[in-house]
């Protein structure tokens, strides 16, 4: 019986029954890879705190904080920032600016901001910057936060 089971498993494995499914590229996947290619040529969309301050002063972007409420309470926010957690961003599209409005996005250290940047780019925003090092880099640079 044991030999039969082993032989049957080998037969199934060689006929492709356990083979992986065929990978198919979706429209969403194509859009994401195009964004990745674009931002990879632009320093991944990162902007230093100093350049972000200039961006705010000269361009007046929509400022988006994608951290959690606990984080907002702990460290404050960049003045004028709209607070929408990354995991709820898709539920607050009506709160986002028109597609031609520049956006400065940030989180605590940069990773969630990068996810948000990618999502915003896929939505069609062209001028999105992610604060390199997040709010922690902003605070370490000595820039103002609102509590």
Automatic annotation (TrEMBL):
Gene3D superfamilies, per the entry: Rhodanese-like domain
This protein's record includes keyword Signal: yes
One Pfam family matching this protein: Rhodanese
Keywords, comma-separated and alphabetical: Signal
Signal peptide bounds: 1-19
Rhodanese domain location: 57-147
SMART domains: RHOD
Listed name of the protein: Rhodanese-like domain-containing protein
């Amino acid at each position: 019986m044991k030999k039969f089971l082993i032989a049957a498993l080998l037969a199934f494995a060689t006929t492709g029954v356990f083979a992986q499914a065929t990978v198919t590229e979706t429209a969403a996947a194509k859009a994401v890879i195009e964004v990745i290619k674009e931002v990879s040529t632009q320093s991944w969309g990162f902007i230093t705190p100093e350049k972000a301050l200039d961006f705010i002063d000269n361009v007046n972007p929509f400022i988006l904080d994608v951290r959690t409420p606990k984080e907002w309470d702990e460290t404050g926010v960049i003045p004028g920032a709209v607070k929408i957690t990354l995991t709820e961003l898709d539920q607050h599209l009506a709160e986002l600016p028109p597609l031609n409005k520049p956006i400065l996005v940030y989180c605590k250290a940069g990773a969630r901001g990068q996810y948000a940047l990618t999502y915003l780019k896929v939505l069609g925003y062209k001028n999105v910057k992610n604060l390199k090092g997040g709010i922690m880099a902003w605070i370490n640079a000595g820039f103002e936060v609102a509590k």
